[in-house]
Design brief:
heterodimer; A: about 400 residues; MetI-like fold; 3 domains; two-stranded antiparallel ribbon; globular; B: alpha+beta; 5-stranded antiparallel sheet; 15 helices; about 55% helix; elongated
């Protein structure tokens, strides 16, 4: 049978089966099991009311349990067993083996860089686009064009950017945009301006923002009686501050690196094979896709800001930048957090982009691709599952936070 | 709003220009792919796509017609005349040469002396006159190295190759239908299941409801990477194996948390009066659901349908794990493109066209139903 007919048939069977199940089970409950008439009519209605929700929920719970909940536990179990020995329990041996592999640490390092850069850049660009398009006439057209990459698959985006990064030998015309632009720099003033001063300014502002965020986190410790927040958070605050200090250190070190770096002008580069920096070329793809998402959500949040607050600020003589940073930003902070965490989740699972563009070569490995490698090339289910569990552990703070805020909201 | 106090037109211009720059930056890569898919392999590899609108300068190796059939005798010499492009091109030759070491030795209309009275003259439009003795004008045609400007050319040949040529490696037609076969059931079935569950979670009172909602919210973020091995083992164990059924089930399972979450959030917001009135009038839950809730929830259903459609259409991982077997009969477009990247990494005309075929449908859906997509995004993430 042709798969297309099979597909149509499956739609019919699936939809028909579901509707039939819901209809018949409800009929059965009302007509046969607990008919709302006769001597026990009242009691029957109550009982039917107790059972009915579960009739509605049963297929969903079954699918969720089987396809999401059970695999989590089973993966945990598999990560503690060894396939080559017939699945015997080996304790943490898989994890030990994984922690001993340089490829794993490379994937961890790269994933951490993705986690910092992609959500930050996508949210920042999204915020910028949302704010800029807010008041102009053709804003909705601009927004839908920036939003468009959301519809493009990661694989499609990988092809698009492979063309951008394409390299031809020196004596031929470059067909990749990046190399064409790169070759137009020849080491003059313009090159210094674009390739050294601009990145230094970006890194400096990044370091400044991170330092400020770290300061905000540390400040309550020294003035604990003011804002409270509980002393229990001190370790967490110190942790965040230490992370921020490390990031500031990293960016200062890269500034030094940029200033002393000798650019190979005039030579076309194979961008995806330059270790360390190729990670950023891959990140660009995801930032390009996710910016539209951030923009749409933040744009709605900016629209939702009460006009009075902005009017009051204008009357008090605030300039547009003050309005944005002091009036608008604080009011959409919670949305920014939501956008940030959502993009973080996407980043943690990023697979297709790396798989299609470099397949983890040239030090671009990430956890999800590492896991895929282990599972389906090395056929090592134990280590593959262990890598999956690592991803799960990285996701779990967001999971707990989401459940916590969902419960808070329901009350 | 900004116009109330001290409207700043210069700032407004700056804003317009920055938005324009941002938009151009964002669509630039995609436009590159689109334009490349309409160019020939030669054009793509000799000039950047941003030059597609201008004549491209190419270095060509051309050959005159074979002398043995075409030569004519004139004034005791043998002459071959003709056009290097066989008359089928509007290319304009700027310089040419007769040896690979000196490809720009002559200008059009100049005569190249090849020794012993053998000469060749090439005109800008490719017409040539090759003159010499009987031995000289024989054997194979004379090679001519020409640098020519070829006018921009738009071709649909790439799309023909990719869609209808039937070539096994380049063809996307089969993959296109496979993708469609995966996508449609995987979009529709979770909606049905999730709608019923969402109704129960939104409007029915029972013990453990809050816990179930928390469970769904938690599953929203579980990485599907965790599900790969256990489910593949399960599928192999119960005899589904790798195939459409497996991938439909997997997509259904993975799509459910978002579906339930979105639909429940929407259904909770429906007016309570309608539902209570219906109950007072004696409607059963099943009737309320099918006659009232479902029609009213159309926007949320549409939102989720678009999400799930885009996600299943663009998916690579789930298809690779649950669908594509060793025979490769059931390959989907994303996988086909990745394979093309491996085997035909340099053939941009095929790659660009294949990629564009695969992103055309989602782009169409995106632009046609953007309203619902945005609405769904907002319901799904802003709390």
């Amino acid at each position: 049978m042709h798969p297309a007919f099979q597909g149509l048939l499956t739609i019919l069977i699936g939809v028909g089966g579901c509707v039939g199940y819901f209809y018949l089970s409800n009929q059965f409950l009302d007509k046969v099991l607990f008919p709302p008439k006769g001597a026990n009519a009242g009691r029957n209605i109550n009982r039917a009311g107790m059972i009915r929700p579960w009739l509605f929920l049963f297929p969903a719970i079954l699918a969720l349990g089987l396809y999401l909940a059970y695999p989590v536990l089973e993966t945990l179990r598999l990560s503690l067993t060894d396939r080559s020995q017939g699945g015997v329990f080996v304790g943490l041996a898989n994890y030990e083996q994984m922690f001993g592999e340089p490829k794993f640490w490379e994937a961890m390092r790269n994933n951490m860089m993705w986690l910092i850069v992609v959500p930050a850049a996508a949210t920042a660009f999204g915020l910028l686009a949302a704010q800029l398009t807010d008041r102009i006439k053709w804003g909705s057209i601009a927004k839908s064009l920036i939003f468009m990459p959301m519809a493009i698959s990661f694989v499609g985006a990988a092809v698009i950017f492979k063309l951008v990064y394409d390299t031809r030998p020196v004596d031929q015309q470059q067909i990749g945009v990046l190399n064409a632009v790169w070759l137009s720099f020849e080491g003059g003033l313009g090159s210094v301006l674009f390739l050294q001063i601009t990145p230094v300014i970006i890194l400096l502002s990044f370091a400044g923002i991170v330092a400020y965020a770290g300061y905000i986190f540390v400040r309550p410790i020294f003035s604990s009686e003011e804002e409270g927040g509980g002393l229990g958070f001190i370790p967490l605050r110190l942790l965040v501050a230490a992370g921020a200090a490390y990031l500031v250190f990293l960016s200062l070190r890269s500034i030094l690196g940029i200033l002393t770096f000798n650019y190979p002008y005039g030579v076309p580069q194979t961008w995806l094979t330059i270790p360390f920096w190729n990670n950023f070329f891959l990140m660009v793809v995801l930032i390009w896709i996710q910016t539209g998402f951030a923009m749409v959500i933040l744009s709605a949040a900016i629209r939702g800001i009460p006009e009075e607050t902005i009017e009051a600020a204008i009357i008090d003589g605030a300039n547009p930048f003050q309005i944005f940073f002091k009036i608008k930003m604080p009011q959409i902070m919670s949305t920014i957090v939501v956008v940030w965490t959502t993009i973080t989740l996407v980043v943690l699972k990023v697979f297709d982009i790396v798989y299609a563009m470099t397949n983890g070569q040239w030090e671009t490995q990430v956890l999800a691709n590492y896991m895929f490698d282990k599972l389906f090339r090395a056929n090592d289910w134990g280590v593959g599952s262990a890598a999956a569990i690592i991803i799960m552990i990285l996701v779990s703070p967001i999971l707990i936070w989401n459940v916590y805020s969902a419960r808070k909201e329901m009350r | 709003m900004d116009n109330i106090a001290g409207s700043k037109s210069s700032l407004n211009w700056a804003v317009q220009l920055s938005v324009l720059a941002l938009v151009l930056l964002w669509i630039f890569p995609t436009v590159g792919l689109l334009i490349s898919s309409f160019r020939t392999a030669d054009q793509i590899s000799t000039s950047g796509w941003w030059r597609a609108m201008f004549p491209a300068e190419q270095n060509l190796v051309l050959r005159t017609a074979g002398p043995d059939e075409t030569r004519i005798e004139r004034d005791g010499k043998f002459v071959v005349e003709g056009n290097l492009f066989d008359g089928g091109s509007e290319a304009v030759i700027s310089v040419w040469g007769i040896s690979s070491k000196e490809i720009s030795a002559y200008r059009p209309d100049e005569v190249a002396d090849m020794g012993d009275g053998e000469t060749i003259m090439v005109q800008a439009n490719g017409n040539y006159t090759w003159t010499g003795s009987e031995e000289q004008i024989s054997g194979r045609g004379q090679r001519v190295f020409a640098t020519a400007k070829t006018p921009p050319e738009i071709t649909l040949d790439n799309y023909k190759t990719v869609l209808i040529s039937g070539s096994t490696t380049d063809s996307m037609a089969k993959a296109f239908f496979n993708t469609l076969t995966v996508t449609l059931p995987a979009t529709i079935i979770p909606i049905v299941i999730a709608a019923f569950a969402a109704y129960a979670l939104a409007w029915m009172d029972f013990r453990g409801r809050a816990l179930l909602i928390a469970f769904v919210v938690a599953l929203l973020v579980v990485p599907l990477q965790l599900a790969l091995i256990p489910l593949l083992r399960l599928h192999l164990g119960i005899g589904i194996g790798k195939g459409y059924l497996g991938v439909w089930l997997a997509h259904t399972g993975f799509g459910l948390p978002l579906a339930i979450y979105l639909l429940r959030n929407y259904m909770v917001g429906l007016p309570r009066d309608i539902i209570e009135n219906a109950k007072v009038d004696g409607a059963t839950d099943f009737q309320i659901f099918t006659k009232i809730i479902l029609p009213l929830s159309f926007p949320a259903l549409a939102s989720f349908a678009i999400f799930q459609f885009l996600w299943t259409w663009n998916d690579l991982l789930v298809a690779k794990v649950f669908l594509i077997d060793a025979t490769g009969e059931t390959t989907v477009m994303t996988n086909q493109i990745v394979e093309l990247l491996g085997t035909r990494g340099g053939n941009w005309e095929i790659l660009a066209t294949a990629a564009f075929v695969s992103i055309a449908v989602p782009l169409f859906v995106f632009f046609a139903m953007q309203k619902y997509l945005v609405r769904g995004l907002l319901a799904g993430s802003v709390k």
